[in-house]
From TrEMBL, chain A:
It is a multi-pass membrane protein. It is found in: Cell membrane. Keywords: Cell membrane, Membrane, Sugar transport, Transmembrane, Transmembrane helix, Transport. InterPro entries: ABC_transp_permease. The chain crosses the membrane at residues 12-36, 62-83, 90-106, 112-133, 145-169, 204-224, 253-274, 280-297, 304-323, 335-353. This is Simple sugar transport system permease protein.
Automatic annotation (TrEMBL), chain B:
InterPro entries: ABC_transp_permease. This is Simple sugar transport system permease protein. It comes from the Bacteria. PANTHER family: GUANOSINE ABC TRANSPORTER PERMEASE PROTEIN NUPQ (PTHR43370:SF1), SUGAR ABC TRANSPORTER INTEGRAL MEMBRANE PROTEIN-RELATED (PTHR43370).
Length: 367, 323
């Protein structure tokens, strides 16, 4: 009998198997650390110390996690509609333009809480606009969304470098970046949250966009599981043919799903641009769009799972920095290695352990 | 005559910049024609560049470097195959994973082994593929028109360059004139039919991804020990994705692949050349325009405005026998 048709209880499917995938990814990463001649256990304890050892560490962990929640949600919304959006990186980049333009226009006149909603809309609109063309090409002309979104990542990078070097740059300055936003264009830090737990935030840029990210996660949950649109998206994701027989308009759902995905990716820019550096810089996204793929896979495309997975990756990023500081032999790029392994085992090899799990489970049930 | 000299210099850098694209796009051709999408071309190229540079440095032999580059790339192909053929995982995700893993591990290991911030040490001339001066190149250099073309463009390339241009007709021959090629193309269109004929779909696809691995190995080796004299971190710099774009642009056919790669290489060479120069009537063209052009062209093609690019039918779909 084929093992693929056996249904496993939810805690195995959504808990044990992802955990197992994660453990294998970490074991191999530990092997790499050992290969370099450092102790994997020492590296692990540094990782945890760096991410949780101080208020500042926790602040950085949550700051990274904020970006990853947005991009993870972006990837997940598209996946629910059966679309693999590799373009979150580019959409976030263009989203940064949207929120920077809002901040530059309003920061002289109004306080941050007036700027913020407009910036959320600006970032979301710009991100969505960048996702619209690949979505349209997929829906109407049948071009593969994976290829077009990859192309659009590179077009976005070229466009943004051009804008920052030639248009938005402060005259007389060398660095390709906009002017620093005034207080009206900055998102305040969440120092009081840390004070509540009796520690200090320090220099960490943990800011209000974390709350926006949590709201966005709740919104995605409602959308996907509690609305008609979400149902239509999921139907399309499971079977486009069944969806079309059921009268669900393919082109419209594809475009709406991608617009939402792009908007969520775009909103990620709020965190680094308005929450941390208070200006638009080159390459501020820093791969967060791609991390979103890993986060979404790890979180099984569920908002709650995505929040946990985003915090896990926040730990990796902050703890990884700490490791590279304490163990100069291990560079920051170790994060990319772990990330690659997580994507490989949680995503591409997700079924590897399933047959064994099914066998063990069935034996267990019989006994 | 000055214009002609510019022409020759742009042409020769076009060729230099196209070679890794040609190898990589041909690699993608084998894989995708067999129904396995390969986003991991970038990672395989980067990984083999690193392996080639390390081994060439340690052994002092360029050929040993090439062997290591190819071996590394084939190993990564087998991982991709294991995930997407044996385990029927998502091919795109597997490719993305390989790209991440390699982008990290090359720097981590490079720093740990050589301590130069992810670089490998500078290679000695004998550990590299040196330019080959074709017979008579110096003798006819002075001949107008033909001389500079022969001496500056056709002669003076390294052996991998000539191999790249040989790989194009060879790939065409393998795909269209051998039994293996016929079956490979069939498995990308209708794996069920191939299976019914009693041929193993999995083994055929494994061979296809191995072909891709070998070709990507050449591309990476070219980057680190033929074009440059060391591995530099992230030296593939998106070439794998450009190759992917070229593959789409060429509609998954070998000879157009070569022309698409030459076109994209030319745009790259032109953007280097045009930096800080102005074009009559238009003024200075930003470098970013040239950089974005291959991607824009590919999207325009995909939108169906210049012909239609139809990918292999079974591409991206794992084969399930029971269906």
């Amino acid at each position: 009998m084929s093992t693929a048709s056996v249904t496993l209880p939810r805690w195995i499917n959504y808990g044990l198997i992802p955990l197992l995938n994660l453990i294998v990814a970490f074991l191999i990463s530990g092997f790499v650390v050992w290969l370099i001649g450092e102790s994997p256990l020492a590296a692990l304890s540094l990782l945890i110390e760096g991410a949780f050892g101080s208020g500042e560490g926790i602040g950085f962990t949550l700051y990274y996690a904020t970006s990853f929640i947005f991009t993870g949600l972006s990837v997940a919304v598209a996946i629910h509609a059966g679309l693999f959006n590799i373009g979150s990186e580019g959409q976030a980049y263009i989203g940064g333009l949207g929120c920077a333009l809002v901040a530059l226009a309003l920061d002289h006149y109004v306080p941050w809480y007036v700027t913020m909603p407009v910036a959320v809309i600006g970032a979301g609109l710009f991100g969505a606009a960048w996702a619209f063309i690949p979505a349209f090409l997929q829906a109407k002309r049948g071009s593969h969304i994976v290829i077009t979104t990859i192309m659009f990542n590179y077009i976005a990078a070229a466009l943004m470098v051009y804008l920052l070097v030639h248009v938005l740059i402060v005259p007389g300055k060398m660095a390709p970046e906009t002017r620093t936003f005034l207080e009206g264009g900055q998102l305040p830090k969440l120092g009081w949250v840390m004070t509540m737990f009796g520690s200090k935030l320090g220099a960490a840029p943990f800011n209000v966009s974390f709350i926006i990210a949590l709201v966005a996660a709740w919104f995605v949950w409602v959308l996907v599981w509690r609305t008609k649109l979400g149902f239509e998206m999921r139907t399309l994701g499971v079977s486009p043919t069944a969806a079309s027989y059921a009268g669900i308009p393919y082109a419209r759902i594809v475009i709406i799903a991608m617009l939402l995905s792009g908007a969520l990716a775009g909103m990620m820019a709020l965190n680094p641009v308005m929450g941390s550096s208070a200006r638009l810089q080159v390459e501020f996204v820093g791969g967060a769009g791609f991390v979103g793929i890993a986060v979404s896979l790890m979180g099984r495309n569920h908002p709650l799972g995505i929040i946990f997975a985003a915090i896990l990756f926040g730990v990796l990023y902050q703890g990884g920095d700490w490791i590279s500081f304490e163990m100069p032999n291990i560079t920051r790029e170790m994060i990319l290695v772990i990330q690659g392994l997580v994507i490989l085992f949680a995503g591409a090899l997700e079924y590897m352990f399933r047959p064994a799990m099914v066998r063990i489970y069935q034996q267990f049930k019989r006994a | 005559m000055e214009y002609y000299e510019i022409f020759i210099s742009v042409l020769s850098s076009t060729i230099r910049l196209s070679i890794p694209l040609i190898f990589t796009a041909l690699a993608g051709l084998f894989s995708e024609r067999a129904g396995i999408f390969d986003i991991g071309l970038e990672g395989k190229m980067l990984g083999s560049a690193f392996a080639a540079a390390c081994v060439a440095y340690l052994t002092g032999s360029a050929w040993a470097g090439l062997g290591a580059g190819v071996a590394c790339s084939v190993a990564l192909s087998l991982v991709h195959g294991f995930a997407s053929i044996t385990n029927r995982g998502n091919q795109i995700i597997s490719g993305v994973a390989i790209n991440f893993f390699i982008a990290g591990i090359t720097i981590v290991l490079g720093q740990a082994w050589f301590g130069q911030g992810g670089r490998t040490p500078q290679l000695l001339p004998e550990a590299r593929f040196a330019p080959i001066i074709l017979p008579g190149a110096d003798a006819i250099r002075g001949v107008p028109i033909v001389g500079p073309l022969y001496a500056g463009v056709i002669s003076g390339n390294n052996i991998l360059t000539y191999l790249a241009f040989l790989a194009v007709p060879f790939s065409w021959w393998v795909l269209y004139r051998t039994r293996f090629g016929l079956r490979l193309r069939a498995v990308g269109e209708n794996p069920g039919a191939v299976d019914t004929a009693g041929i193993s779909v999995a083994w055929l696809r494994y061979r296809a991804v191995m072909c891709a691995g070998i070709l990507c190995g050449f591309a990476g080796t070219y980057l680190s020990i033929a074009q440059s004299a060391a591995f530099i971190k992230d030296m593939s710099a998106g070439k794998g994705y450009i190759a992917l774009a070229a593959l789409v642009f060429a509609k998954w056919r070998p000879v157009p692949v070569m022309f698409a790669c030459l076109l994209f290489g030319f745009l790259d060479a032109l953007s280097n050349f045009m930096q800080g120069k102005s074009v009559p009537l238009i003024g200075e063209v930003p470098v970013q325009v040239f950089q974005a052009l291959p991607y824009i062209l590919t999207c325009v093609l995909l939108a169906g405005f210049i012909g239609v690019a139809i990918p292999p039918k079974a591409g991206g779909v794992p084969y399930v026998k029971e269906r």
